[in-house]
Amino acid sequence: MPPRWPRQPDRNDPAFRRLDDRMNFAVHVAVFLASNSGLWFFHNLNQATWPWLLPLSGIWFGLLLLHLLYIAVLADYSVKSNG
Hints:
The protein is mainly alpha-helical.
């Protein structure tokens, strides 16, 4: 069952922004896991020599950690005044 929001979705709503950022992060993690597992599967299956695969996975994982750091620590979800 998809998540339901009890009121009209609005990016100015701090609770909605927080939920949206976390769902966006979850999508990024899913794409990372699906892509990397597929690449590593074919790398191991074919005994391929892909020297770029380990740096790619490491850099992508680092970017995911930065994304997590942003949504967990740095993002400001307080109510902003229009004044």
